[in-house]
Fold this sequence. Notes:
- Helices cover 78% and strands 0% of the residues.
- It has 277 residues and is mostly helical.
- The protein is elongated, with a radius of gyration of 32 Å.
- It has three domains: 125 residues; 88 residues, Helix Hairpins; 55 residues, no CATH class.
Amino acid sequence: MPAAKPVATASHEHSGLVEERWRWPALLVLAATVPAFYLDLLKSTPSWIADATYLAAALVVFGSLLHWRLRRTTPWRWRSRQSFDLLLATGLLLAAAMPPSGELSGPLLLRLGVSGLTLIRMMRALRHWFVRGGLSYLLALSVGVLGLCGLGFWWLEPHVGSLGDGLWLAFTTAATVGYGDIVPSTTASKIFAVFVVLLGYGVLSLVTASIAAVFVESQERRIEREILHEMHAELRHLRAEVAALKGPPPLDQPCTAEARASAMRNNPSNSKVSISS
């Protein structure tokens, strides 16, 4: 029977399976809390819609924590993540229970903090895209983020008259250019601009680093091929030298005709001695 896997290894694999199963449901409900924050701030819809969105997100995060607990997958590296998810779920519940946000009220500050935690949690769920060779995923992510930011400015900023203007404002904000032709003027659009700047720093930096890594990776592969070629040549040379030093086996030991002929070919001087004797 095959040996049983160590407990730590099995626990780590179970934790990875649990996280994989809850990744996309958590991403969807957490992404829905972003427009819920602005719906509550603008008071353009009944507040129960935003509250229901926060509550659904909290239930999904609590569900993933309960799944972790039932599987008893608590290695040390996952405990910090569980603590973070517990803090996020508690904040989402408080955001759902508190009254609508005012201009500078406690509920607004709480929901801003929850939005920051949500952003961190979403980036952690997408970390498998930020790997070597993931340039295409990062480009798709950056285009999607800028498109959503453009839609956000088009919705939140009254001076943005078209989607094109919203995309332009999103790009200049994310790139921290600030031409000044269109600027956020409302509280909601200013708060949104803060998150766009943070996203711009992260996404554009990752894309730039991935493009540079493509050129570095091609150079590394060329060097690796040269090193492997030299190692193979040295190994062939060493094998030939070892075979030459061994020489033919003694005559009193049984040996096949093939092995004797091969040894004589590798060391012709010994073959002459054998013939003369």
